[in-house]
Amino acid sequence: MKGRPLAAIVSAGLSKFGKRDGFSSRELFAEAVKEAFDTCPNLDPKKDIKALIVGNMSEAFEHQCHSAPIMSDWAGILPAPSVRVEVACASSGAAIRYGLFAIISGLCDVVMVGGFEKMTNRTTLEATEYLAMASDFPLEQWNGATFPALFALMATAHMHKYGTTEEQMALVAVKNHHNGTLNPKAHMQREVTVEQVLSSRIIAKPLKLFDCSLISDGASCAILTRPDIARKYTDTPVYIIGSGHGTDAIGLYERDDLTSLKATRIAAKEAYDMAGLSPKDIDVAEVHDCFTIAEIIAYEDLGFCNPGEGGKFIESGAPTLDGSLPVNTSGGLKAKGHPVGATGVAQLYEIFLQLTGQADKRQVDDCEIGLTHNLGGSGATCIVHIYRRG
Amino acid sequence: MKGRPLAAIVSAGLSKFGKRDGFSSRELFAEAVKEAFDTCPNLDPKKDIKALIVGNMSEAFEHQCHSAPIMSDWAGILPAPSVRVEVACASSGAAIRYGLFAIISGLCDVVMVGGFEKMTNRTTLEATEYLAMASDFPLEQWNGATFPALFALMATAHMHKYGTTEEQMALVAVKNHHNGTLNPKAHMQREVTVEQVLSSRIIAKPLKLFDCSLISDGASCAILTRPDIARKYTDTPVYIIGSGHGTDAIGLYERDDLTSLKATRIAAKEAYDMAGLSPKDIDVAEVHDCFTIAEIIAYEDLGFCNPGEGGKFIESGAPTLDGSLPVNTSGGLKAKGHPVGATGVAQLYEIFLQLTGQADKRQVDDCEIGLTHNLGGSGATCIVHIYRRG
User: Fold this and answer.
1) Shortest CA distance to B342 belongs to which of B31, B22, B133, B110?
2) Can you say how many angstroms the Cα of residue A146 is from the centroid of all Cα atoms in its chain?
3) Residue A312 in 3-state DSSP?
4) Can you tell me the mean pLDDT for A294-314?
5) pLDDT(A238) > 50
6) Which among A43, A22, A44, A99 is positioned nearest to A344, based on CA atoms?
7) Which of A64, A72, B266, B283 satisfies CB 3.0 to 4.6 Å to B246 for a cystine?
8) How many other β-carbons are positioned within 10 Å of the β-carbon of residue A317?
9) Which of residues 22-81 of B touch A (CB under 8 A)?
10) Residues B245, B338, B373, B385: which is the catalytic one?
């Protein structure tokens, strides 16, 4: 059997993503938690859950740090001890990894992992500033670099080195928007065409509006257990069989190459090695498409195609729903939305649905192995997890 | 032998605490790390360290989140994967706990834990606002409650219920300031008298200026290993033998009793049970004296004395350097200073010095068992660790 189980996912929940006017993050988290509890009747939340590890990027949006106890409270699991982890947009990916450590340590039989971000209560300018805090203050923020600008540098380098085109980037948006129309929880539920993407206004050349992911509100959660007790809670567990965490220098100015992310390559290698698998074993993946170029680079760094061939990979149709390796069936950050702290566990949620046959109109046939890829900042952090159907 | 080792501390480092003009948190962290590396020559940082878990409360002070990769970089341990954990002032206490999980899981043989906060680059008003983010936004911050106000409510309740006096609270400040004069790394290096404390200006009645801990810059770190490999790195390891983490509702308005912190009682019970010890076994402790009343309540919640007798406990002299259970030999948050994210691991640092006989003028004779108690916010989070000399 491929991949020794490190932990089992026995339930998961996701709030509707979008502009959730009037809902604070604690309410969105409770919405995600309710789904996880409702679909796992054998779980006794107050008795069983031994820890909550919750990802959240920025205290600025709601002027609230120390949010972990609030989330324990609103999940109804007090006095389960809780902690927030933060590595920018990879915060809840890190929550999964530290949830795994807690499970494997033997000190916690059942843990909740999750994430949340409330963003649309702020103006786009404010959100852009808060997100920029994930880049280096003295040498990036201070000089006016925002995240679209940083990823635009990567896109330009990739175009220059490999001939990647704006049309190829647009195809990522077209694919993910299509998938989003099949996901009732997605923020954006409409198709876009290549022409619409190419003619949308420029944000940071060559990235246009439709190359960028969404500013969204949302929350996610999942229940992890020791593999040997998973069937107390569900007949259809999903096992986490690989975990990788890569860290690189925060600033682009410190990196040798802008066309590839070292943190992703490190995280992918660790996860594949732990699972005893290679890229060709992956049946379905959620990758961090904060910008369309990020998904193209992810194809390459995760080994789905060779370096420089990410543009051709999307052109070939391989990562579409009917392709050989469907990527971002949920709609991705691009269409499902990107409430940054929620994203890592939201990716897990989609893979959980796919591997348990609950993905409805976007179900990938006969998938057994899934992968999630969650970036922090401009790629100083990457968390990769690999999953197997139970 | 009392207490099965969960992990070993093989080295630790602490920056000078204080108003460190011109130093950013990454430089302070590097200062702490340098001490830990210099005193552990057998450690090969880049090769041995498998993860960094770093506590930091607020991205607001330096307009910087995603600080974990920066700290990996400035520690010189890239590509060691790093994550920030945040539970307000208990952030690096939580880093210790999640470092333990990583070690016990068997997936990491050596991890660095640490914490940092840069605070004095901001005005006191700004710092007060940022710290207030650790309380509930809609029902505490929004109504103007700052942390001195919240702890003043607890002090008032304790005085009303138990007859605790302002003089008793002042004695905590006197003791910790005295200890601070013996600690070259302490922010404040001067004695205070009961009269000075009582006559200092009122911040939030009954708390006066000298009842409050300091706004400081600083950083801390420690190297944890599997117990069985600790002697590769040092002849004098200190073992972590108990870990407890309690979480309670964030708002005072949700709690039954303002004179005791449930999160501390939960964390202490878990840690004592894990260590197989009771309060009478503790030889030296660092407790979270963010305000003098907090130390008095900690005496009671940790079982050093009975409920309501914390005032008498300090009056008796028991927690002084020459007493039966010296508390805050470092000077505590009150005199050593309280760069909030650094505090949890700074407490561990003091216990590491004490249990390895390196505490110089403040050395407690013949101590074998130590304890640290780290609060988040107004006590929604508490982390307790128990240590044994190797």
Assistant:
1) B31
2) 20
3) helix
4) 98
5) yes
6) A99
7) B266
8) 13
9) 24, 51, 57-60, 62-66, 68-70, 72-73, 78-81
10) B338
Best mutation target among A101, A119, A128, A266 (most B Cβ atoms within 10 Å) is A101
Name the β-bridge partners of B291.
B212
Residue A158 designated active-site: no
pLDDT of residue A3: 77
**Is a pLDDT exceeding 90 seen at residue B1?**
no
Q: Which residues of chain B does A98 touch, with a Cβ-Cβ cutoff of 8 Å? A: 83, 98, 101-102
Kindly state whether A260 is in contact with chain B, defined as any CB-CB distance less than 8 angstroms. Answer: no
How does pLDDT run across A343-353, given as a tens digit for each residue?
Answer: 999 999 999 99
Strands A238-247 and A284-286, sheet pairing: unpaired
pLDDT in tens, B241-253: 999 999 999 999 9
CA A349 to chain centre: 9
Measured distance CA(A122)–CA(B179) in Å, rounded: 46
At CA A60, angle to CA A295 and CA B30, rounded to 5?
80
The model carries a pTM of: 0.98
Instruction: Assess contact for A116 and A219: CB atoms under 8 A.
Output: yes
* Mean pLDDT of the region A140-154: 95
At B158 the three-state DSSP class reads helix
Phi, psi of A215 (to 5 degrees): -90, 115
**Residue in B285, B284, B241 with CA at minimum distance from that of residue B264:** B285
pLDDT at B141: 94
Q: Average pLDDT for residues B137-146, to the nearest whole number?
A: 93
Q: What is the pLDDT of residue A2?
A: 58
Residue A276 pairs with which residues in a beta bridge?
none
- Kindly state the DSSP code that residue A298 receives in the 8-state scheme: H
Task: Collapse the DSSP code of A157 into the 3-class scheme (helix H, G, I; strand E, B; otherwise coil) and give the result.
Answer: helix
Neighbour count for residue A235 (Cβ, 10 Å) = 9
Distance CA A281, CA B73 (A): 34
Q: How many CB pairs under 8 A join A and B?
A: 182
Angstrom distance (rounded) from CA A11 to CA A42: 11
Q: Is the pLDDT of residue A202 over 70?
A: yes
What is the third-level CATH fold of A7-123+214-389? Peroxisomal Thiolase; Chain A, domain 1 (3.40.47)
Q: Is B89 a catalytic residue?
A: yes
